[in-house]
Structure prediction request, 402 residues.
Amino acid sequence: MPIPKSLIRPLVRELHPYVYGEQPKIKGMIKLNTNENPYPPSPKVLAAVKAAVDGRLRLYPNPTAQVLREKLAKLHGCHADNIIVGNGSDELLALATRCFVEPVVTRRSASVVKRLRGTAALPGETVIQYFTPSYSLYPVLADIHGAVKNAVPLKSDFSLPGMAELKSGRSKPPDPGCAGGFAEARGGTPNRWDFNAALTFVTTPNAPSGRGYSTKELESLCRAQKGVVVLDEAYVDFAGENALKLALKYPHVLVARTFSKAYSLCFQRVGYFVGHRDLIAALHKIRDSYNVNGLGQIGAEATLDDLPYYRANFKKIIATREWLSRELTKLGFRVLPSRTNFILVRPSRFSAPAWLQSLRVQKILVRWFGRPEVKDYLRITIGTAAEAEALVNAVRKILMQR
Ligand SMILES: Cc1ncc(COP(=O)(O)O)c(C=O)c1O
Prediction:
């Protein structure tokens, strides 16, 4: 029997949840769809986690992940008070939303407000702001919170619009039919960048484009923002530079990091923010008491004791990324330069969703997003060298068959 609709808040009833990457049920699939690391955690990490599976499981873990925060502080040259650890960085992105942004929607649903106002904020209204395309969780967090969103398109090559363009509100219109054509594809004008947004998320290097941004351009952006800026560096270990120093220099800048991607620890859900102690203290106030599970804390601590193992893996992944990019280019794919552990490619001959299906038949799972700005592209996670070779062989086979 269906439940009465009224039991659930209108906002939640109308919410479009985050779409997860598929978890394949068929055995033997090569899984290149969720940017997981193809290499296992270091043997020392596995040993530390296994050794912790004992009578301690009946106890609550350390509520503030104290030891882990101290180790992270040492690594980043700051104080443990500059760090908060979360159940994955996703939890912290959600906490930032709740901590820094005033919801505009209380009783009425977010979609009603969107219908009445469009996506642009009214002057002075507190908003969650991000570029498109970037991490698709940000708009969902805004919707859950009932906050106004401001999605501003990147340039057609997915680079950041310059400060002058953001200030004049004339970021370069996307090329017709090109990936950045989000606003045009909807027939609208791109939203104007809001320097007063309460919270701005920047994925750097970006996902799903893979493009890296320089610390210099990020610094200009941060300096111009009045509200909090979160630089989401989930993939930064695969890039040449990072912007951590901005979180230690500017009181309104936070850097988000995760153990999921570069440190092969998705399963354990550990991420963290670095930033000014007052912002961090505010975030601590609203988190769950024991938000980071004990085995996750132990796994992350052991990871920090074995960084050379991971740095060797970054090198392997980067080498495979460059090899795969060259091979797919030879096969007629347009491969965007990447500073991450995935590549965004525009396949040749037939559509991206058709390629998704053809590759699935070859037992290779990649990711396709239906969003207008990236619908012609596939995002491919960098696996092992053998997995990359299998992918190239599958692409050759498909091209011969069709
Ligand atoms: C840009 C970006 N930020 C954050 C995350 C979340 O990572 P975590 O596993 O730490 O929650 C992801 C995961 O896909 C991501 O792509």
